[in-house]
């Protein structure tokens, strides 16, 4: 941030100011992200039975708002610059400083995204993408500054800064959209599809059907509740063992730590035509069809024959 403001004061370029102003957002948002990650890592307590992970979505929301505000302010300043143009100086030196900061931000952004995915942290992932956006902006800045240097067209400084600011506002909007989706418990279809695929690939004969599956993400953890239909002649110990196997399967195969709340249903005669249970003592009819578990039938609140 300091390097970019030095470049701005050396050049008097609104184009460079767009990057410098966004760096203020980087510093403020990263400070808030630091605290939110610390808070999200705290163990569950009586006031937060699902943990503190939701704060990460709020952190991303704040970052998106700050980025959008910075972009809007830059647009207004650049429009004013078009009406009252001013010369720019030391363009090559400014371009060199911006290029150096772009390399640093690109490397840090790549590292944060990699860690964000491995730790399932939306905050680290968002901050990493923000820094990669900063790197892309810096590349555009260097190209634009070279154009200004070669063409000597001063108006390019404000025109290009408006274009970059619009890109910054769009980036802020995407972060806001992502955070609101998490705060509103919007379904993450990619995660749910992966869970359904794992269950479908590793399903057992006694898992007659799974339905009413719902998933909520709390920071780096996933919470799933669903209904599991089992043979009605299983005793309580056997039912508990089957539920535990589903839990262990998801946590072993999925890429995210998952807490499951599984309600068990007893099978009924209408389940027989798609039940694969061998040597069933209560079967009322032969199996006549296979039902593949899909996003559609697993998330419905009814058994698969209904």
The helix-strand sequence is: HHHHHHHEEHEH
**CATH superfamily grouping of the largest domain:** Cation efflux protein transmembrane domain
N-to-C span: 61 Å
Shape: elongated
Model description:
By secondary structure, the protein is mainly alpha-helical. The protein folds into two domains: 2-183, Cation efflux protein transmembrane domain (Alpha-lytic protease prodomain-like, Up-down Bundle), CATH 1.20.1510.10; 189-299, Cation efflux protein, cytoplasmic domain (Alpha-Beta Plaits). It contains nine helices and three strands. It has helices at residues 2-11, 14-40, 55-83, 91-119, 122-151, 155-183, 189-201, 236-253, 295-299; strands at residues 209-218, 221-230, 257-266. It has a three-stranded mixed sheet with strand order 1-2-3. Helix 2 (14-40) packs antiparallel against helix 5 (122-151). It is elongated.
Describe the structure using short key phrases:
about 10% strand; Alpha-lytic protease prodomain-like; Alpha-Beta Plaits; about 300 residues; mainly alpha; about 60% helix; 3-stranded mixed beta sheet
């Amino acid at each position: 941030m300091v390097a970019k403001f030095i470049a701005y004061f050396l050049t008097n370029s609104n184009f460079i100011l767009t990057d410098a102003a966004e760096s203020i957002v980087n510093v403020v948002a990263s400070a808030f992200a630091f605290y939110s990650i610390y808070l999200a890592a705290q163990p569950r307590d009586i006031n937060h039975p699902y943990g503190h992970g939701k704060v990460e979505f709020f952190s991303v929301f704040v970052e998106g708002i700050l980025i959008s505000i910075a972009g809007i302010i830059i647009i207004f300043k650049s429009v004013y610059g078009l009406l009252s143009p001013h010369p720019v100086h030391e363009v090559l030196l400014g371009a060199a400083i911006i290029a150096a900061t772009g390399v640093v931000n690109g490397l840090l952004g790549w590292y944060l995204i990699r860690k964000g995915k491995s730790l399932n942290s939306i905050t680290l992932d968002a901050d990493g993408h923000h820094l990669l956006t900063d790197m892309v902006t810096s590349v555009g800045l260097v190209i634009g500054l070279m154009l200004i240097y070669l063409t000597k067209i001063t108006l390019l400084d404000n025109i290009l800064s408006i274009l970059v600011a619009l890109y910054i506002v769009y980036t802020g909007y995407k972060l806001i959209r992502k955070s609101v989706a998490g705060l509103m418990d919007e379904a993450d279809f990619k995660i749910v599809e992966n869970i359904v695929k794992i269950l479908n690939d590793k399903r057992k004969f006694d898992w007659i059907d799974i339905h009413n599956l719902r998933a909520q993400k709390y920071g780096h953890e996933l919470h799933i509740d669903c209904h599991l239909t089992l043979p009605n002649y299983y005793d309580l110990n056997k039912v508990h063992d089957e539920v535990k196997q589903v839990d262990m399967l998801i946590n072993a195969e999925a890429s995210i730590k998952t807490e499951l709340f599984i309600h068990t249903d007893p099978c009924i005669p209408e389940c027989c035509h798609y039940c694969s249970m061998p040597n069933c003592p209560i079967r009322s009819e032969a199996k006549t069809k296979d039902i593949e578990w899909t996003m559609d039938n697993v998330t419905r609140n009814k058994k698969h024959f209904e």
